Amino acid sequence: MKRYILLIFLFLIQGIYAQDVEFKAEPSKTRLGVNERLRVSFTMNKDGDNFVPPSFDGFRAQGPMQNIRNSWVNGKHTYSKSYDYILTPTSKGDFTIGQASIEIDDKIYKTLPVKISVGDAVKIQDPYEAARQSATEGVHLVAEVSKTNPYVNEPVSVVYKLYVSQSSDVTNFFVKENPSFNDFWSQTDRFDPQHLTIEKGMYNGEMYRYVVLQKTVLYPQKSGQLELEPLLVNATLQVPTGRNRFGMVNYVSEDKLLSSGIRTINVKPLPEAGKPDDFTGAVGSFDFRVTPSKTSLETGESLQLDVTVSGKGNLKLFTLPKPVVPSALEMYDPEHKENVNVPISGMTGKISDIYTIVPQNRGKYPINQLSFSYFDPATGKYKTITSKDLMIEVTGDAVAATTPAAAGTQKQTVESKEQFRFVDLETKLLPRERDHFFGSTLFYGLLAAPFLIIPLIVLGKRKKEAYDSDVVGNKIRQNNRLAKKYLSAAKKQLGNKEEFYVALEKALHNFLKAKLNIETSEMSKQNIQELLLNRKANPETVADFIRIMDSCEFARYAPSSGAAMQQDYESAVSVITALEKQV
User: Fold this and answer.
1) At the topology level of CATH, where does 133-267 sit?
2) Mean residue pLDDT across the chain
3) Which residues cross the membrane (predicted)?
């Protein structure tokens, strides 16, 4: 009897221990060279949620990749789920991979820290690992700056290029974050990724292929050391993993975040020595002209005075000098005109202020010379251009004040009062024919209108109450709207893997809620399959729907190309359309 009790006790102990939760970190190696990589798997024997990875200080991490294994051996079920990371060391030394956490059955479990030792670079024996490193390290994002020590308001061009070596293959990329050029006036030309021109050029002494992503011209607005924020690009690379049984090389897609790096520009202040009093910030090489439309006119006529600066420099960033005229000449606010191009080398063109001047009395009036000063960065000196003196001759009789709209015309004096005789001072009033409103058709129609409208209002109110009380119908309509909304959001996020698959999965879930009237907790794949088949859906269409749900679930944890996302989106639209007709 004691033997049987002992056996039962042992079986109970075994059952209890079989239910123990295990969550551990398993590195592929704990010692490696600085040019090697390792895999770390965070493994659990029971399904969990809210996985939080540790901070991988000292490493560049790629992942996670999720793996699930189910097995039955002699009637015993074994479950294993892991989150895998590929780690690349950034320097030599001893590092510690911290604790990861997972929530299983409303309890938090954590792994033990793992110590990793990174030593000197070792010779890599695996040719495919070397090819993989060559493929991932042969892609560079570079910001080529024309000048690193300009003057204030001197143009600086920045060209962003993506260099790809002959051993690397980039299948897709998109700009993740554009720099904000603080303390600069800037203009950027961005190029369509679908229409880029592939060119060849040298980079670090080797021949590379490259494309120009964008060009920016900058005008620094203050002196000192100014930083250019980096451009961030997410690129998808094809890297080799080995050969299959037919001898062909296998490739996988791998995402890599590229940065152009922070660039520093040392901006020199404009010299104080020799700075003219009329200097307003013009930097470049310019020509200056003051041109009147005419110099001889009659009283009351107008002329236009054109003050123009042309050339190459910061044309949009300074003001033109203002002419000073005698009080007998009435001058109005100018009309400002710009004809400026902004190529990568800097602004070119001209700017003008056109003044309208109207003389009030005859005589000769001088307009004094104007001067325009600018700083020439080529010589490092200030230059001043002075216009000629102008003499305006006005003939004719003096007139009262006029306006630009009336410029060029004279007021006429009143010679006779006959012109006012059209005003008839004797008014004759005629009786108006009475309008019989009371008793008319319009009168009775307006009187009966409220009695006709009241039944319509009552009927509309009843329909509104029935609509509001239809909880199931409203829920279905709401889910239909959400499905369309998230499907549209997924289309906008093509190329952005995480956001795309989250939106696509929400679209599929809301579609099921609308069609099957189920909740999220009921969305097991087996239940979805049974409900769709019971609604006479095509088995192949149901299988395609389940496959897309699997793709949404796993694609967020595995590399995915733009082509794969486009294919998943088109498949989702096709399957949803088919189920709309079948269910």
Assistant:
1) Immunoglobulin-like (2.60.40)
2) 81
3) 437-459
